[in-house]
Structures are given as C-alpha cells and as structure tokens.
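Please go through the protein record below and explain what the tokens say about the fold. Record follows.
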Amino acid sequence: MVAMVALFASLVTGARGDTLSGRVADTTGAAVAGATATVVELHRVARTGSDGVFRLAEIPPGRYTMASRCAGRRCGSSRSP
C-alpha cells in the first residue's frame, strides 16, 4: 500500500504543443507503477509505467492541478507554479 506519493511534473515545448511529463513516487522515492496522473482542469489522464513515469502530449499553456490515483484511491496532488 502506498501511504503517500510525490508527483513531479514538468512541461516540455515541442512543435505540436507542450508535453507534460512526470514521475509518481512513494515516500521512499520508489516508482509507483500503474498509477494514474490527471490534469484535473483538462480531464486528461495518463497511466504510469513500471518506472513511475507518465507523459501527456499537447497540453495548452496554463496553470493546472495534477492529481494521482493508486489502486483506485487518491494518492497525491500538486499545483503547477
């Protein structure tokens, strides 16, 4: 069971728009595989791989809230700066 996770995200600008990527990790820094990462305001969802990494393409510029879910329950959130 993951008691607490950290959600790290960054935007990378490309020819087709911004790509939001990040990593979901537990309190020890271990990757959380199979978690979902959601851009709340856009209703965009990505699933993390075995390395805890997710990517969402073509995200418009803006300020967003990110949320993650692990095994069907909320496990963390963060707000873009």
Notes: Strands lie at 5-14, 17-26, 36-39, 44-47, 53-59, 65-70, 73-79. The first strand starts at residue 5 and ends at 14. The two ends are 29 Å apart (CA to CA).
